[in-house]
Amino acid sequence: MGMIADTLNSIHWHIKQINEFDVYSGNSTHSLHNNYVYRYALPFEKIDDPVGATLFLQRYWYHSITISVVYFIIIKLIQRFMRDREAFVLKRPLVIWNASLAIFSAIGFIRFGEDLVYSVFNLGMYRSVCYTVHPKGVAAFWALLFALSKIVELGDTLFIVLRKRKLIFLHYYHHVAVLIGSAHAGAEHAAPGRFFITVNYFVHAIMYSYYASTSYGFRPSKYTFIIHYSLTHIGILVQNLKKKKKIKCFISKIITSILCTFA
């Protein structure tokens, strides 16, 4: 009984740690961030209330897990529904879907990547890894869109099951891990996320362009797809390892430096 009690206490402690955030704690409105200001910014590329948005994520980030569970159940139900039915073709919707996500990812890479380039070349690696983006700026806006896009990208799986294509575990893991990781990282303003977001935007721009072209009927070299798809999962590794309470900032710096080397 003592061992069971210790195990339950350990689980409770770890869950509590996951839900404790340093950013804006104790009614503070201070966060450790860079002050880079974009020279060109559209009127909507901003976060008017970063404190409110962050506190909202801190209170409800765990619903990313809820969404993931519901997503898994729905996909399994659709697979069961499609078991004895003809596969849908969905050529035009698939082209539009992939092309839209490719364009979004390319724009996100260009807009968010500007902050990364400035940070690395003007502020150095330490501030790039340990200081987050300006909470009201353009990069914060595109970081928020990045997190929200991970919910939208769950739709990828619908096309797979409705077309009765093979669905592998890595597909589930990719979508669920990035969704949950992005929600939690946003809640704590995880600074190394600027590397992950930039790389993920870039890789998805390539990936979805590849998917759009193949769904249209044109098939480019598979090697291009394999290389960049692998980079996505290197990014997932960084996302899962960069929790501030578990890994010191200098370790995150090493990991993200390796990521940038391979990218």
From TrEMBL:
Reaction catalyzed: a very-long-chain acyl-CoA + malonyl-CoA + H(+) = a very-long-chain 3-oxoacyl-CoA + CO2 + CoA
The protein's annotated pathway: Lipid metabolism; fatty acid biosynthesis
Family: Belongs to the ELO family.
Keyword Oxidoreductase: no
GO CC, alphabetical: endoplasmic reticulum membrane
Protein name: Elongation of very long chain fatty acids protein
TM spans (from-to): 60-82, 94-113, 141-162, 195-211
Membrane topology: Multi-pass membrane protein
PROSITE patterns found in the cross-reference section: ELO
UniProt-annotated location(s): Membrane
InterPro entries: ELO_CS (IPR030457), ELO_fam (IPR002076)
Keyword annotations of the record: Fatty acid biosynthesis, Fatty acid metabolism, Lipid biosynthesis, Lipid metabolism, Membrane, Transferase, Transmembrane, Transmembrane helix
Primary site of residence: membrane
